[in-house]
Amino acid sequence: MNKLKIEFENCYGIKQLEYDFDFSVKSTYAIYAANGTMKTSFANTFMDFSNSQPSKDSIFTARETKRIITNENDDELQADDIFVIEPYNQAFKSQKLSTLLVNKELKEKYDEIHLNINEKKGTLTKELISKSGLKKGVDVEFSTDFTSYSNDFFKAIGRVKTEVNDETEAEFSDIIYSKVFSPKIIAFLETKDFKTKLQEYIEKYNDLVDSSTYFQKGVFNHNNASTIAKNLKDNGFFKAKHSLVLNAETDKKQITTEEELTEIIQTEKDAILNNPDLLKAFDDIDKALTKNLELKAFRNYLLDNLKIIPELSNINGFKQKVWVSYLKEHKQLFLDLDTEFNKGKEEIEKIVTQAKIEETDWRNVIDIFNKRFSVPFKLKVKNQEDVILKRNGPSISFEFFDKDDKCEIEESELYKVLSNGEKRALYILNIIFEVQARLKDEQKTIFIVDDIADSFDYKNKYAIIEYLKDISNSPIFNQIILSHNYDFFRTISSRLDMERKHKLNSIKTENKIILKQEVYQNNPFDYWKEHLDRPEMLIASIPFVRNLAEFTGDNENFLKLTSLLHIKNNTQNIKIVDLQAIYKDILKDKATLVLDNPEKLVIDLIFETAESISIGTDEIIELENKITLAIGIRLKAEQFMITQINDNDFLNSILKNQTSELNKKYTELFPAEIENIELLEQVNLMTPENIHLNSFMYEPILDMGNIHLKELYINIDEL
Prior knowledge:
There is one protein chain. This protein is α/β, with parallel strands linked by helices. The protein folds into 4 domains: 3-95 and 441-517, Rossmann fold, CATH 3.40.50.300; 106-172 and 331-351; 177-304, no CATH class; 524-717, no CATH class. It has 32 helices and 14 strands. The strands form 4 sheets. It has a 6-stranded mixed sheet with strand order 5-11-12-3-13-14, sandwiched between helices. Strands 2-1-4 form a 3-stranded antiparallel sheet, with helices on one face. A 3-stranded antiparallel sheet has the order 8-9-10. Helix 5 runs antiparallel to helix 14 and helix 30 packs across helix 32. The chain starts with a strand and ends with a helix.
């Protein structure tokens, strides 16, 4: 993408903003936006776009919003083409980490082996779903019942292999799992009252089995008998003219036909299950099963399946018997799956072993982070093989360390012990994961970077700058970096080698936001001292030259220049020719400097220039004009307060912070002048001390609004 074209109207306070970002030569733009200008609104608008959500004006909600984001062909971008990097978002977790963990070759081998296995599994589970009545989660239920784990299906298959292959009958294949083992029913079956009633039933049942003519508890019951009868039938025992003998205590009975054996077994069953005492014991169970509709349905199911009552004393064991019965009924499907799984198992184990030690792209991210950022922890992916092979989400832990020890802890616990700066660094880690994953996927992206380095210490701040530089070197990435910190703005512009047209200042007017190319490439004083013939640049240079005088121990010139930033006894005596001499003396490359109007008072020049700027119609005023206004505002304010206080001894006693001290005194003497006091407080707020105390850090004056500075000068002038 060579261009990004935007048109915003009524987006989170942005009344209007249009701009074409040209990435054809350089991939990165930097925008300096003072607080309240547009930075957060700009980022939020792009965030909405990336989330496929509409934007709005948060305050004037009825206003119609316009949001157009297109490329050089006027085609609208896709949501995923934009990624907004917030200043900090603890909740953010890159959803693309798996991309960095996957080894495609291993994954393809793994998928190939599992394809047939899953086909066989699908065929079997389809039948299990039909038999069990479970609409979903049949493999989970099966796994849990045999292994206590929800994801060990094949381990469960291995455990039941012997039971499925034995010759016993699938005695519970007709039982519907869902009708017996619902959570509510199981909870009821586990109650003490029901267990007591059930024990009484089982004891009576066992007594009846023991007193049976042919059955014997634990040796040969009606279920065993049914299995034998079926096996004999299936194997043509009676058709081959064989017979068998049933032993009773008093006699023996020879059985020669299948029908005769079935009749005897059924008679014995009926004698037991229809016994009056056993039926009375069941009545007690029956009465307990009337508390709610689900239990009533279970009661009705028991009436049709009395044989399962003795099994209810061991719920887990009964579950397994039911599953085994289902598998016996679909034995061939079970055997097909088992064979297919075992065939691929050895190869899968080799692949998993390789996956555990695989050094994938995520390691590069960790290396980038560990080398550049200062944090007391290291990241570790615990389930790397599952991420690579099974598409599971990564499970991440952190190894926290100090000089004496180390300890592995989960992310939730890590946040409790990290400092705010370290938490922010962890957030950066997730951002790096996102960026590197997009790089791996070759996903062309425009990153909107919203004050990412804010609140970081200098080491980590410069680490972020270096990483943004890495992003700028990628041919598939573009960036728009926003900051309210001018120092960061300058640094990022320099480190990323941006051209002038890619360094923008945000200007907020009453009706729109204007993005304007930066005027000064480096320190503005370098430009001003070459244009001292322009009044605003001559005046703006005063605090800079004053600093030079202070740093070089030139106290005489330092004091004279101080008298042009504060009202002193000699302020009204300093002429332009005096200022010229000071500049020639301090600025060694200006030895031939000649200024116009040498006899004109400097303070008059300051006021004239400030007034001209204040009444100007320009929506945008440059830094030199802002500084001139700020100096003029302060001098006007001090003139007013000194006149009102009328105490020369007090004035001479002030050694520092003159404007503030005069303000305090004025407030003490004139407490009723509320409007004047409020106006003078604005002077303190909007003409900060570093205009003249540390003038090489001029960034705060950049944050001041043009309109407010103009209005303040006009209001002060009217006092």
